[in-house]
Design brief:
single chain; alpha/beta; Rossmann fold; UspA domain-containing protein; about 180 residues; 5-stranded parallel beta sheet
Length: about 180
Amino acid sequence: MTKDLQAFSCLVIADESEEFPDALIYAGLLCRYTGWRLLMLRVIEPSDPAPWASITEEMHLQARDAAESLTQRFAAEAWAECGVTAEPILRDGDLKPELRKLLQEETSIKLVVLAAASPPSGPGPLVTQLGKSGGLSPRPVPVVVVPGALSRDEIRAVALPMAAAVSIESAEEPPAPQPPPA
């Protein structure tokens, strides 16, 4: 008998980077084969204030509309590629503090999936932060970094064994031992 795996979530951070779809597909496949929820965070970072409040508000509304459009497009991609529904979470603020807050609030998040840029551009700001600090949150949450240079077939090949391992670890009772191959 397995635990309620819907109580577990995998978080991916939606951005407009070239490598983000790789992280989304990896996380989507993992969720498909484990029964976890797929959460997709998009943070709308504040823009420079305009001389008039109405212009600042209009800029914020346009940024929110763009964020909603982006997450809908990526949710459709996750459904088409993986057969899972990505639940968008929109936040206003700076990415790192909003990510920390979400990880503290949403204790169902058991894994964060990030994509790393391909060399020579460097791995990206969140991956770089992980290397310099104690993590993304005071609550320990594992992070998987998907290299941006992987093909979709390579992403599938990496995601499936991970999903099997997570499914086994999530079981209340260990699987029955298998006889060794003949």
